[in-house]
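Q: Is it fine to ask for two folds in a single conversation?
A: Yes, each is treated on its own. Send the first.
Q: Here.
A: Result:
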Amino acid sequence: MGNNAFNKQHAKRYDTEDRRKLANIIADKVKTVLPDKKQHSLLDYGGGTGLVTLPLAGHFDNVLLLDASQEMIHVAQDKLAQIPYHHIEARKLDLMEDDQLDVNADVILVSLVLIHVPDVKALLQKLKNRLNEGGLFLIVDFDKNERVDHPKVHNGFTREEINELLTNMGLHDIEINTFYHGKNLFVNQDASLFIATSRG
């Protein structure tokens, strides 16, 4: 996300059918780990065009979608202008370059973001600092995949890596589960997704 690859044309083409399907799968899984009662606030960092964020919006009083790409945020804002949600804000922020995040949240979601981040530990720590006490910290990303070799992304993460990161940040009640396997899912390789849940 630091070297932002999502230029204007890419952002406009981002919402492909495959990406929409995968986003719905992720959103449906996230819903299963949310508390039964409506939560006050969601912070979705790296939320892009809102493909995962928007299906979750009804579970929260306030939603903040952040992304490092202004063009992706423009697409998200265009969507928000056409739907009846007034409790969602989408704005540009790259936490690796700008620490001016002025809100806390009850739930923080980082979905398919960490594979793009050079310093995963630093980003997660900055986000954890914005988590309300007792809040829910959610990560969705790819399981480690040795078949993936690409200069711009990590090839996924092991459960041990994620557990160590979350533990060292002082998070607890950590659970990590693989929930989806797909064809040509990750740099044209078959891959699986995990969800990690933890509490502040």
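Q: Second one now.
A: Result:
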Amino acid sequence: MTHVNSDHSIMPQVIISAQQLTQKIPLAQKQLSIFENLSFEIYRGEQVAITGRSGSGKSTLLGILATLDQASSGKLTVCGQSIAELNEEQRALVRLQHIGFVFQSFQLLPHLSTVENVMLPLRLQPNFNFAAAEQKALALLKKVGLEQQAQQTPKVLSGGEQQRVAIARALISNPQIIFADEPTGNLDAQTAQEIEQLLFQLNREFGTTLVLVTHDANLAQQCQRHFELVNGHCIEHGQGEG
């Protein structure tokens, strides 16, 4: 995605702005630096991959960008909100209103049906309406190809089917951003490819910004932008680079 609209020369909307983000963990005698002074912007509707070796801080960075954790220092703005100025309750509201999550381990509730799992984020909203939520959940299950499994529980679903449920759940609140942490990590190669295609298809269809952590170089290459964490620093690769 180019950052200048050639027709109107208008800069696209920044949806995440990180300035000098630093994360350090206090140890007995010193501090362990996970990363230091990371600065970048992510634009509305983009597909962004974050890669790096195990222990490089990928998931830590994702957690901070998703407002689940706080950086040691630096400034983070998400959907127009300066995150450091918010308390935990206010950060939770940002997540509820603007953010969806897809995890490697799916994180579905085993005692709930597929459609009930998809509806869960809406139950947290003050204006929850069961009939409307169920209708929306069923429509999303149809989009991910699981309308026939709406009343089944996760234990009878394959890994790929469970991840499709998780993607539908992530979309039900109409989030501006979806954060995906190793979304294909527990899947076989063919199923992983199907989930990748689904994520990108829904990203285009819903206009949702997609930020994902992955070990999969092929998945990272398919994203419009690719950040790699190396020795505590963020390197942005050009499109098509490994």
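Q: Anything structural to flag on that second result?
A: Two points. The helical segments are 58-65, 88-98, 114-123, 130-143, 159-171, 189-206, 217-222. Residues 44 and 102 are 18 Å apart (CA to CA).
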